[in-house]
């Protein structure tokens, strides 16, 4: 395994559900309840120093995984100090599509979390402004969910007077 994976397993213990390395890219899967602790440690520890959250997105595994693992929230982290990167995945159940907001760890998470809410319907608890960012407020559903009906008619909204 890679150096970062070994560090995560050593420091985070049972919070690491799984890990893998492929083509030099290291990935750790972290328990949802340990997410904020893990992200803060990754940001603050001198050996990791992930001071830059490059991206935050989600994946919908509808129909290919059990419902308690339907979604993953994915963080792409980079350390300017050490010039290394890590992918962190958080499994999210269909019955409770919510995780804690990482906006308290990296301010850049703010808009990314709003986009994931808008497109996938995953709520980020504690987010300072959890509202749609790409679609209008009256839009019904979350269009990047694999079970979203693409033929669904949306409410029409008119111009404000």
Order of strands, main sheet, comes to 1-2-5-4-3
CATH fold call? Beta Polymerase, domain 2
Tell me the β content: 25-35%
Gross morphology is: globular
Per CATH, the architecture is: 2-Layer Sandwich
Distance between the termini: 61 Å
Oligomer: single chain
Low-confidence segments, ≥5 residues, pLDDT <50? none
Largest sheet: 5 strands, mixed
Question: What is the count of helical runs?
Answer: 3
CATH class: Alpha Beta
User: What is the structural class?
Assistant: alpha/beta
Write a concise keyword list for the protein shown above.
single chain, 161 residues, alpha/beta, Beta Polymerase, domain 2, two-stranded parallel ribbon, globular
Describe the structure concisely.
The chain is an alpha/beta fold and 161 residues long.
Q: Would you write up a description of this structure?
A:
There is one protein chain. By secondary structure, this protein is of the alpha/beta class. The chain is built from 3 helices and 7 strands; from the N terminus they run αββαββββαβ. The chain has one domain: Beta Polymerase, domain 2. Strands 1-2-5-4-3 form a 5-stranded mixed sheet. A two-stranded parallel ribbon has the order 6-7. The chain is globular. The mean pLDDT is 95.
């Amino acid at each position: 395994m890679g150096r970062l994976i070994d560090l995560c397993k050593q420091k985070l213990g049972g919070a690491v559900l799984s890990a893998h390395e492929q083509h030099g890219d290291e990935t750790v899967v972290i328990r949802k309840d340990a997410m904020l602790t893990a992200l803060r440690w990754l940001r603050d520890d001198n050996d990791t120093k992930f001071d830059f959250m490059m991206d935050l997105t989600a994946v919908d595994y509808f129909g290919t995984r059990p419902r308690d693992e339907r979604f993953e929230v994915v963080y792409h982290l980079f350390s300017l100090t050490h010039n290394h990167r890590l992918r962190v995945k958080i499994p999210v159940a269909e019955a409770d599509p919510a995780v804690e907001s990482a906006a308290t760890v990296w301010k850049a998470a703010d808009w990314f979390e709003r986009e994931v809410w808008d497109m996938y319907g995953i709520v980020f608890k504690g987010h300072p402004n959890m509202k749609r960012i790409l679609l209008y407020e009256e839009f019904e559903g979350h269009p990047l969910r694999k079970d979203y009906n693409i033929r669904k008619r949306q409410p029409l909204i008119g111009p404000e007077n």
